[in-house]
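Is adenosine-5'-diphosphate placement plausible here? Inputs below.
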Amino acid sequence: MAIDDSGSSSFFAPWPERLRHSAIILLAAGLALSALVALADLSLAPAAAVFACIAAAALVPWRMRHTVASREEVRAVTPAESAAVAAVVAGMPDPAVLLDRAGRVIHLNAAAAQLAPALRKNELAQFALRSPEIITALREAMATSESRRTTYLDQVPVDRWMELTITPVPMPTPFGGAEKCLLLTFHDQTPLRRVEEMRADFVANASHELRTPLAALSGFIDTLQGPARDDAKARERFLGIMHTQATRMARLIDDLLSLSRVELSAHVRPDVLVDIVPIIRQVVEGLELLARERQVVIAVEIPDKPVTIAGDREELLRLFENLIENALKYGASGGKVAVSLVTATSGEGAPEVRVMVRDFGPGIAPEHLPRLTERFYRVDVGDSRAQGGTGLGLSLVKHIVVRHRGRLLIESVPRKGATFTACFPQAKPAEAI
Ligand code: ADP
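Reply from A.M.:
I modeled the complex. Tokens:
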């Protein structure tokens, strides 16, 4: 192995350092004994014995170091090697820290410095990584030189589930020796856990929503086959309820399918130019009956000229249907729903089309606003069910808007109504209204 011999210009310079020390000691001892033999009249035999002892003593450390060197291949890391290792650690996309066998930091990347700002080069990582799970895994990896994996909850600055993998890596270190270093890599598991939680919630919610009308249906079937078999009046009433429950189930399945279809094509932006004006008119016409039932006037303020966006006609129909129907159902007490279309400029300066659906009903309390577009989220579950709602409408609206590369704004002042605004990038500025 290459041993660092630089820095000496003496006669012994080309010799290995440890051999050089032994040679100097032997030379000094030889000269001293020769002087004693010549000047102090020392006899040759004892002088030779003393020289032999000094020679043995001088050679022992050299032997020992040589043994250690061959066993551990001790050498100093070259600057090029150190730079290469640092570049590998720096280039890792996740937080990564390389520790020496004692647990001192050799290299760390920017992501690791951000994750644990207390980490310092050449200092013990245990002092900076305080989570008990990390310390235990680190201790075990240091004791056994085997890989370890652990997950822990990092609560600063926000709750994050992190996975730590410790991998032993044989590597030359600036502290000497090609020893088993430890590579710590951290992976943020939070998005994965959230998706998993959402998936589990979704399945639980969907099956609960389907089971409720199903239970009602089978209950009424049992009653009609049993005690109410010959009761014409009860049969009439139960069949009406069964019809409502069956419609609710059909609507729920419909909404679930629409949602999954939109999600599947979320990455493909619609590329057909559609005129949004007749779409809004068609939806308003289709809801006139509901508006009359709820004694609500729909005031429409949209231009007579075409307003084109790159869009999916069917999806846009569902979107406006959901927004206007919600306004009629939940904001009926206001007696009026205003539907308007304007062109404006987005925050980034791009022209956009904004469709606003405003009602003057009870509005929505601010704490509910951020969650309204979550699947199955309702402000009042009983009210939503009574209105034939599935809790999926606004989630579908959000997905459709996002697929169209637009934005959904929800504003509300409690007791003064709510405004839902769907913004879409304008297809051709030349055709702006
Ligand atoms: P639903 O099928 O229950 O109508 P949505 O996703 O369409 O589901 O709406 C979610 C919830 O948002 C509704 O249950 C209702 O509580 C509330 N909401 C939606 N639109 C309005 C509105 N215009 N005014 C007041 N509350 C509303």
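Short version: Confidence is low (pLDDT under 50) at residues 1-10, 66-74.
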